[in-house]
Amino acid sequence: GENVEQHPSTLSVQEGDSAVIKCTYSDSASNYFPWYKQELGKRPQLIIDIRSNVGEKKDQRIAVTLNKTAKHFSLHITETQPEDSAVYFCAARLNSGGSNYKLTFGKGTLLTVNP
Amino acid sequence: GAVVSQHPSRVICKSGTSVKIECRSLDFQATTMFWYRQFPKKSLMLMATSNEGSKATYEQGVEKDKFLINHASLTLSTLTVTSAHPEDSSFYICSARRDLPGRSTPPLHFGNGTRLTVT
Predict the structure, then answer these.
(1) Is A106 an interface residue toward B (CB < 8 Å)?
(2) Nearest CA to CA, how far is A54 from chain B (Å)?
(3) How far is A42 from chain B (nearest CA, A)?
(4) Running DSSP on this structure, what letter comes out for residue B104?
(5) What is the tens place of the pLDDT at every residue in A59-113?
(6) Using CA atoms, how far apart are residues B115 and B64, in angstroms rounded to an integer?
(7) Which of A30, A85, B23, B117 sits 20 to 30 Å CA-CA off A98?
């Protein structure tokens, strides 16, 4: 099965700085990589995703990069704001050819943006 | 946007009792729903995949007789924790897959989660 490693487990930045979270995956057959933001006690919210046929995707202050050769992908948040503080999870979906759409999640990164 | 409703949000029960958690897709039909368990400051662990009209597919190590899943309609899946024990205390979250025409990676929409405490 797929294994997703996520680093760092905690990240503290000053407001306005950039934050980068990195993930690696083990199975080269994975083809879809979403990122979720989860505030304490709330549901995970999809913030950005990328497919394996794309190297980079950007949405305002958030961007994701994918290196298929190295099997790693990263989340970049620029001009961080206190409301960006949350736990961020990366995930990978194995292209098994079926319809189950199982995601394997990383262990999460607690991002704290200090005002 | 698509909404997934999960109830209850919190439940406290005594050891030995059973608890049912509901996951509803409010404005779309979901042939597939997923149940996760999340320990404090930990990641989401997939417990099982719930398919409408068929048996759920459980992940390795998850007891199917303890965590009963029923997906009786296209908008409702239930997870029943049977004979609950304190070690079953956790945060349980469901997600529903929203199939869209032409979309090879259908979005997942999460419920708000259920905090289960077994005393």
Answers:
(1) yes
(2) 14
(3) 5
(4) S
(5) 999 999 999 999 999 999 999 999 999 999 999 987 665 555 678 899 999 999 9
(6) 20
(7) B23
Nearest to A75 by CA among A14, A21, A113: A21
Instruction: Tell me whether residue A82 is exposed, middle or buried, using C-beta atoms within 10 angstroms of its C-beta: 0 to 12, 13 to 18, 19 or more.
Output: exposed
Pairs across A and B, CB distance < 8 A: 50
CA atoms of B35 and A102, how far apart (whole Å)? 11
DSSP string, A37-77: EE-TTS--EEEEEEETT-SEEEETTEEEEEETTTTEEEEEE
Question: pLDDT tens digits for B12-45?
Answer: 999 999 999 999 999 898 888 999 998 877 788 8
Which residues from A are below 8 Å from B107, CB to CB? 46
B111 part of contact set with chain A, CB < 8 Å: yes
